[in-house]
Structure formats: structure tokens, C-alpha cells
């Protein structure tokens, strides 16, 4: 038996619409009252699935960024140069609202529309989401400095992309990065040694000269960065540090090297030193960590959305391959073991999407319950979605057989990209400990969240039993500290079950609960998909 082609090779997946082929995403947009964005999301879906866009995503990861420290005449330039494909993906991200949409659209549902866009974008080229989402997340912080914000507002609201490396005042659009991590501390920001010396007051407030080293400097090609430095008696403070000083001279931000990363190859993450780098204070003196917490919450949401997006693309690629590749007389997708595996993957991807998009919706709300939900669930969702995407993309790669393990196909890049979302913006343990900090600081709010989940679950006894375990754990903080990962995992699974029961089809919700809470859900995907009709779950997952 042969497939579509005489040689039984699978046709390349291209020229399809990522939005219209995803009924689960469409439903999430409708639930979040973001249907005003439908026409635009349909356009974006076609753009992302177009052959030339897919090719640009590949080329941006094949032709890597290059660091040029000096000009031909020996002047210090610290310039990162990119292939045109990178700039195309950055322009698409900008146009599609990933740099700014929920910050300039007052509708709460703008967060849902934003979530749908980044979810699709990272399926095609994930590296360009890093400077794009950091730009978006920087906006609330930059607003804290009113004179500076007056100069930057229109440039951050702009939907056009400007790749030029010139003084930020001369550009219609800006990108903003972060510079927090130092080699001696990593996630322990209180050990940062970079210093900031007061240099007077200017048109944009308190000015400083900054000296020190940043081990990971996200996207050093950005027009400016928000970074932490020790203002001596003032303590750790947040500063805006542009690549160019306002007077047109090059700022003292020296790029030492670009990191040679496992994945995220298109994005030029670097290592820098500050040499009397000019910066202005953002937020209160000595409140640098607290100032950046808001930014971290948003970028962690983006990681949860990206993890879900990577799973979605891996699932779609695996389904496409399995439906068009034949073995032993029938399509791979119709082989019982493969059908169960794909169905279990479809459940995992759906639950990840529901959790991430629900969090996006709650980011547009100031209701107390929503604030509590996102404070506790955002780090948990970031931990779980990103962690699961690593195993998920590996399973999808295996569906392809040997063709999955070659660089000419789509799976290698997805597989290498997945772990970075688990690492940046706080690794797994950092996320789980953040969950524990949230529940310990607001124990009554945490209990109320569990009660809300219980109300949503109804009479489902298997999930209720796991909820009882979470509630009991809150009463023993000493033991809980040693079970941080277990608590985050259980919390996410219960939250996903509640969301599946509320929003998924009866068949998918029943299958999710039966598999994840039935006692025999294995360590690997495909051990149990919770239903006797796994093919039905696949028909729901993707409209090819």
C-alpha cells in the first residue's frame, strides 16, 4: 500500500491556515470575547502558514546572527547583524501585535487576542518572540518614568519594525530587552554586583553611569534594555540603558560574545559589559527587583503560551505525517498504538492551550479571583507547559522515524527550542518555589482558589481527591517546601481538569480525567489516552 506519493513520502506541510485549522484556538478566542479580532487572526493564520513565511522561519535559524565588535576602521560598534529572514519575522511579530497589543488596547480581551497571536507565531519562528515579548513586557515599567515615557510611548505603540541601529530618538519604533542575569548569581538577583553611580539629573530624571557584567543579556541588538544595578546605598534599582546615548554617541554597552545556544538559534542572546554606560532610573530607588516582578509575570505567561504553541505545532506535524505515511497496509495514524499516542498528545496540547489562554484572559481582569489565579497559576503553568513541551516534541519527532532526526525537516528545530522556555524567565525549581511563595504569602487567597476549583469540578471524585491532597499540603509548609514540584504539578493538572470539564467536548474532558487521574497514566505519552475511541479526539484536534 502506497501513500499519496509513489515513494510513500509525506508532502511538506505548507500553505495552510494556523487559525482556521485550529478549532480549539478559535473557541478560546470566542470565550475570551476577542471575536473582534477574528478577521485579523484569520489573516495572521494564513500568513504564518504560507510557504514563504515558513521558509523565512527556517532561514532565520540557518543563517545565524553575527557579532561585529569593531568597524573596518577599528571603532567600537558592538553590532549584531541578522539575515533578512530574521527581520521579516520581527516585522511580522510587530505587525501582529506581539510587541504591544494588550498595552495599548484598553479592552480586557486584547490579552486573549495577543495570546492567540503569540501562540501562532512561535509555531513558525520562536526566536523572534523573545525581543518582541520583552518589548511588550517593558512598557508598564517604562511608564513609571513619566518624562522618559513621553519620549518612548509612540515608538513602542508603533506597529512598524525598524531594524536600524541608530539613536533611539531618531527611530519610529523600538525594541526593548532585559539585562538582569549575572554569572555569580543567576536567578539570585540579590547577588548582582553591577554598580550604578549617580551622574546628576536630566530631562528624563535621575541619570547614572553603570559598570559591570551581564552573563545573559537577552537580545543585545535591541534599542535599549532594562537592567538591574546596585546604586550603592540605594540598593538594587532598575535602569533604562539605550544602545546609543541621546547625544548620538555610542553608549558603553560592550557585547563580548553571542551565546552558542542549543536552540533559539535565530535570536542573538549575548554577554555584555557596561563601561560607564549611561542610563536613567526606572521605578523607585532600591526597588529594582520589585519593579521587575511585573515584567517577569508577563514574560512567564508568554513562556506558557509558547510552550503550548510548540506542542501544537509538533502535534500538527505529527498528525500530518501519520495521516500521509503508510506502513503495514494502512496509514500510521490508523495503527492502534500510534492512534493512542497521537490522541494522548492531542489531550496534552489541548489542556496546555486552555491553561495558557485562560491565564491570558485573566491578565485582562482586575477581579480579586483573577489576580490570585494568575499570581499562583502563572509560574505553575510556565513550569508545566514548558516542561511537558520538551517530552512532547521528542515524541512528535519519533513519529517521523529517521526523517524526524534530520535538519531538513521541521522537528529538530522544535525539539531544540522547547527547553529554553523552561530555563529563561526562571527555571523549573524557581517557578515551583515562586508558587509556594505565592500561597504562603496569601494563604487565604490560595485556599479560596482551591475552593473555586472544587466548585468548577462538580462531582468528579478522582480530581476532588487530588484537590484534597493539595489542600492538606498547604497545612504543612515544612513538608511542602520539599514537595514544590509535586505541588505545582498537581495544581496544574487539577486546573487543567477543571478547564477541560468546562470548555472541552464531553469526550475530550472525560478522556483527560480518565487518563490523568485514573491511576495508570504512564511516564510516557501514549500509555493511556482515556478513551476507547482515540480517533475521535484527533478529528477534534486539527482540521487538515
Keywords:
two-stranded antiparallel sheet; 5-stranded mixed barrel; alpha+beta; globular; 544 residues; Butyryl-CoA Dehydrogenase, subunit A, domain 2
Protein architecture, described:
- The protein is α+β, with helices and mostly antiparallel strands.
- Among the domains are: about 110 residues, Butyryl-CoA Dehydrogenase, subunit A, domain 2 (Beta Barrel); about 100 residues, no CATH class.
- It contains 19 helices and eleven strands.
- A five-stranded mixed β-barrel has the order 3-5-9-7-6. Strands 1-2 form a two-stranded antiparallel sheet. A two-stranded antiparallel ribbon has the order 10-11.
- A hairpin with a 2-residue loop joins strand 10 and strand 11.
- The longest helix has about 35 residues.
- The radius of gyration is 24 Å and the shape is globular.
- The model has no long low-confidence stretch (mean pLDDT about 95).
